[in-house]
UniProtKB/TrEMBL annotation:
Protein name: Uncharacterized protein
Lineage: Bacteria, Pseudomonadati, Pseudomonadota, Alphaproteobacteria, Hyphomicrobiales
Keyword annotations: Membrane, Transmembrane, Transmembrane helix
Transmembrane segments: 6-26, 33-54, 60-81
Superkingdom classification of source: Bacteria
Amino acid sequence: MTLLLAGFWPGLAGATALGLAVGALVGWPDRLAASLGLCVVAGLVVAAAIAGFVPGLPGLWLDGAALILPVYCAACGLGALGRRVIVRA
């Protein structure tokens, strides 16, 4: 796992920055179906990466997606929360 973090830190940093920007620009969704669906997809990707269904280079891509997608989702939530706090103030 440490090797994956060392290799994917630029992607993680980019996902964090992009998620914060997108969350701040878009804000909270009106319907929760899209955000819940994205959380379900992220959970399925993480579960598939942990189970090790996909070997080789595609497995590495899956592991990278399992690391980056939840970080992006969390950063979108933080950006939307920041927008909500700033708009109310």
